[in-house]
């Protein structure tokens, strides 16, 4: 078994209203950060997962997303897997 | 125990439901802890409002995996009446017992106030004591009450009469201003495909006595109780 660092990014689905993102966009503009066209606020979930290989770690993370970590009605998700650095 | 009220860690409207049923309507009701794997001999199940599991991850996302939820799904699948109020509505959506999802209010604020909703379907087991088009004053108390579903699902809900309640203004019109949370089409409550599951964001259990400022919520519990009596 190898330990993997898995990063799950959960974001509001494209086209869905994101009140948090809009508030952040407005705040950035009021701080004179010009050129901010759009802001979407999501979640980053970091996991350490033991698995036989990266592919199976990824497969399990995707299953976690579908079952719990993301709501398919309102959220998109993306999974990144890399081998954990030995502590 | 004709009506089982499920208590999750973080439920806070369970006693309000209990009192609405016991004290106001004189109906037997009891609590079922979320660790239970059965709803016993209940004739109806209520998932009450609150903040189960601290609303972590998403409201209702963790509660929907509580052991009791398998029993609730089975109960609903066999035609049993299941009512989800506020957090209970969120749990029913997360569990897939109702379509759609509830997201953060478009106003970005927690809304705790009395709103008006119009009864859109007065034939369901939960709403038949009302008149269609009747406007109710009910409290809301939520941060994540924006009802969303894809357009096809929303159209289906409309054509099948499964929109139970809609946010309206004092004149009974569904305007954007009357919509407290950005819900699609101003939807405040929806029925499942079988008509035996209802979820709504407003709190009827907090509007059952004059002292509470409105008695408009009592009709929902009366409907439920009459439905049980008719089925018995």
What does this structure look like?
The complex is a heterodimer of chains A (87) and B (232). Chain A is α+β, with helices and mostly antiparallel strands and 87 residues long. Chain A has a single domain (2-83), classed as Mth169, Chain: A. Helices cover 32% and strands 33% of the residues of chain A. The longest helix of chain A is centred in the last third of the chain and has 16 residues, at 54-69. Chain A is elongated and about 50 Å long. With 232 residues, chain B is α/β, with parallel strands linked by helices. Helix content of chain B is 22%, strand content 25%. Chain B contains 5 helices and 11 strands. Chain B has helices at residues 14-24, 68-77, 87-94, 151-159, 218-231, and strands at residues 3-7, 29-33, 44-47, 81-85, 101-103, 111-119, 135-142, 146-148, 163-168, 187-191, 197-200. In chain B, the strands form 2 sheets. Chain B has a 9-stranded mixed beta sheet, with helices on both faces. In chain B, strands 5-8 form a two-stranded antiparallel ribbon. Chain B is globular. The model of chain B has no long low-confidence stretch (mean pLDDT 96). The chains are: A alpha+beta (87), B alpha/beta (232).
């Amino acid at each position: 078994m190898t330990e993997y660092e898995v990063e799950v990014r959960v974001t509001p689905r494209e086209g869905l209203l994101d009140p948090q993102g809009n508030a952040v966009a407005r705040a950035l503009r009021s701080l004179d950060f010009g050129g901010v066209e759009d802001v979407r606020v999501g979640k980053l979930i970091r996991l350490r997962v033991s698995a036989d290989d990266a592919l199976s770690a990824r497969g399990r993370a995707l299953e976690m997303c579908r079952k719990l970590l993301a709501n398919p009605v309102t959220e998109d998700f993306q999974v990144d897997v890399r081998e954990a650095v030995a502590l | 125990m004709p009506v089982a009220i499920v208590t999750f860690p973080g439920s806070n409207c369970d006693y309000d439901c209990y009192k609405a049923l016991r004290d106001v309507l004189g109906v037997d009701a009891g609590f079922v802890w979320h660790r239970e794997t059965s709803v016993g001999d209940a004739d109806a199940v209520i998932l009450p409002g609150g903040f189960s599991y601290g609303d972590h991850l998403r409201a209702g996302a963790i509660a929907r995996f509580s052991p009791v939820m398998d029993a609730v799904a089975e109960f609903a699948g066999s035609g049993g009446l299941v009512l989800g109020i506020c957090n209970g509505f969120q749990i029913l959506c997360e569990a897939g017992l109702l379509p759609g999802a509830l997201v953060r209010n478009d106003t970005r604020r927690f809304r705790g106030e009395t709103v008006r909703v119009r009864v859109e379907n007065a034939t369901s087991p939960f709403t038949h004591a009302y008149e269609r088009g009747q406007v109710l004053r009910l409290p809301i108390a939520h941060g994540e009450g924006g009802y969303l579903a894809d357009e096809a699902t929303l159209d289906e809900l409309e054509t099948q009469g499964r929109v139970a309640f809609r946010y309206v203004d004092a004149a009974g019109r569904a305007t954007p201003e009357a919509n407290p949370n950005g819900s699609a089409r101003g939807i405040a409550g929806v029925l499942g495909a079988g008509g035996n599951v209802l979820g709504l964001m407003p709190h009827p259990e907090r509007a059952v006595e004059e002292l509470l400022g409105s008695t408009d919520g009592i009709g929902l519990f009366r409907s439920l109780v009459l439905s049980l009596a008719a089925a018995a």
